[in-house]
């Protein structure tokens, strides 16, 4: 994944470069200098102080030293643009606010803050001293390990903040508060966190099937390729997770980091969205957007957001369109191993969307023709709508959920006569060309 660099140090270690490459931080922010902070008029909104009060009930508060740490963190990121620091310091009084400042799951502070606190020693024990065999992977925040909580018997995934990484304390707080107050089967559950000294760790429910990225783009030999029905089930579940953020949370939340590696898979391929460190409270009142620095992952960012920093719910819809297209085509959002015309998935797909005869060419060859023709067309139509240049032409997430639930409910038997016929049609079309 490309990343708009958050660090410009050319002497950066290879490891750091890899990590940063995973994360976009768009430094092309000429427009952001003009953006004004807006006042949040939403009555459901809770201030940072409300939350601090609330979180005092916890043994360790992720917020306790965050104001200081945020400033320290911002100043430590030498190459981060001034906008970043401004953004962090201004956000408490602005509608460019992360859920950390003012979100509530049900509008009642204190009732839904469920995350448990851990000491660092407890997590050292849970991971067997962060042993390599239990290393699950590494992203912009830091390394992730599988762990076991003796007292509850739970298997967990523990993410340890890398202080030199490109995400920091701010993302940690946003993650803890957003997930603590969210409760939906398609959002990964945060079991707890550790904020001891300068250690910051997040403890999640363990997702045994890993990420959608692993299955779609990095299938190990022993992993079965995802069939059509499973892909539609994953798309519908991920859309439901997004619908919860957009339409059910108070105030609503823009996710900002929807991508295949952030869709984790539970038993039976039930998808759950993860990584809420970039989430933002949506615009309130008659505001149409939130002005913020551009963050997200290259290939998934809506064009208008990347250009202007104006974030809307429709930015998430665009990212969802990219994920859906990846599910249908089996191609990566950005693939530098392909020829120039095929490196950017959306740019490759746009001309094909206009020609029905090309739709079959877009299906993942790994499906070997085992998909319903109508389902393929319909899912491509949904992806095309989500990827409209004009944000207001993109559908609302509730409509995407309705459409994908319908597609996921269509039972498709890969060996049924209709699918054999579709395969046959495909062979005939190919030989006609
Ligand atoms: N709850 C979990 N259960 C099982 N595996 C997990 C869990 N959370 C993360 N992982 C795995 O850990 C790895 C790193 O995840 P992480 O979210 O840190 O990075 P990423 O999603 O690849 O990048 P980014 O930092 O941009 O989100 C991924 O391979 C993911 O599959
Ligand atoms: Mg992730």
Automatic annotation (TrEMBL):
Keyword Membrane: yes
Biased composition (Basic and acidic residues): 47-87
Signal peptide: none
Feature: compositional bias, Low complexity: 27-42, 88-98
Keyword Transmembrane: no
Residues at the active site: 257 (proton acceptor)
Every Protein kinase domain range: 130-407
Region (Disordered): 1-113, 413-433
Residue numbers binding Mg(2+): 262, 275
Cellular location(s): Cell membrane
Swiss-Prot/TrEMBL keywords: ATP-binding, Cell membrane, Kinase, Lipoprotein, Magnesium, Membrane, Metal-binding, Nucleotide-binding, Serine/threonine-protein kinase, Transferase
Pfam families registered for this protein in UniProt: Pkinase
Gene Ontology biological process terms in this record: pollen tube guidance
Residues that coordinate or bind ATP: 159
GO cellular component: plasma membrane; pollen tube tip
UniProt superkingdom: Eukaryota
GO molecular function: ATP binding; metal ion binding; protein serine/threonine kinase activity
Membrane disposition: Lipid-anchor
Family: Belongs to the protein kinase superfamily. Ser/Thr protein kinase family.
Name under which the protein is recorded: Protein kinase domain-containing protein
């Amino acid at each position: 994944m490309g990343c708009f660099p958050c660090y410009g140090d050319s002497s950066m270690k290879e490891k750091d470069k890899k990590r940063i490459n995973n994360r976009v931080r768009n430094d092309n922010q000429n427009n952001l200098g003009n953006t004004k902070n807006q006042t949040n008029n939403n009555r459901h909104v809770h201030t940072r102080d409300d939350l601090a009060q609330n979180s005092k009930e916890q043994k360790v508060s992720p917020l306790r030293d965050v104001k200081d740490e945020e400033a320290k963190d911002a100043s430590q990121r030498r190459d981060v643009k001034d906008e970043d620091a401004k953004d962090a310091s201004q956000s408490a009084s602005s509608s460019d606010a992360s859920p950390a400042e003012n979100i509530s799951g049900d509008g009642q502070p204190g009732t839904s803050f469920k995350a448990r606190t851990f000491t660092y020693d407890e997590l050292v024990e849970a991971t067997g001293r962060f042993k390599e065999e239990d290393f699950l992977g590494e992203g912009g925040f830091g390394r992730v390990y599988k762990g076991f909580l003796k007292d509850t018997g739970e298997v967990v995934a523990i993410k340890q903040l890398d202080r030199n990484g490109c995400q920091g304390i701010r993302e940690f707080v946003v993650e803890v508060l957003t997930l603590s107050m969210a409760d939906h089967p398609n959002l990964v559950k945060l079991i707890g966190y550790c904020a001891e000294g300068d250690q910051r760790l997040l403890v999640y429910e363990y997702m045994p099937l890993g990420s959608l990225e692993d299955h779609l783009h990095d299938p190990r030999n022993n992993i079965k390729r995802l069939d059509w029905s499973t892909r539609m089930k994953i798309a519908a579940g991920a859309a439901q997770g997004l619908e919860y953020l957009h339409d059910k949370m108070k105030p609503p939340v823009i996710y900002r980091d929807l991508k295949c590696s952030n869709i984790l898979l539970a038993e039976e391929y039930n998808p759950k969205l993860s990584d809420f460190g970039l989430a933002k409270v949506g615009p309130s009142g008659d505001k149409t957007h939130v002005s913020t620095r551009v963050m997200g992952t290259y290939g998934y960012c809506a064009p208008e957001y990347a250009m202007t920093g104006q974030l809307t719910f429709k930015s998430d819809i665009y990212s969802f369109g990219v994920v859906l297209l990846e599910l249908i085509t089996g191609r990566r959002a950005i693939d530098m191993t392909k020829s120039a015309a095929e490196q950017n998935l959306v740019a490759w797909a746009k001309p094909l969307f206009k020609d029905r005869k090309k739709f079959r060419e877009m299906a993942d060859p790994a499906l070997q023709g085992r998909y319903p023709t109508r389902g393929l067309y319909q899912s491509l139509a949904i992806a095309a709508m989500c990827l409209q240049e004009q944000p207001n032409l993109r559908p609302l997430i509730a409509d995407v959920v309705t459409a994908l639930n319908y597609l996921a409910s269509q039972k498709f038997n890969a060996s049924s006569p209709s699918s054999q016929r579709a395969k046959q049609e495909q062979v005939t079309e190919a030989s006609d060309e």
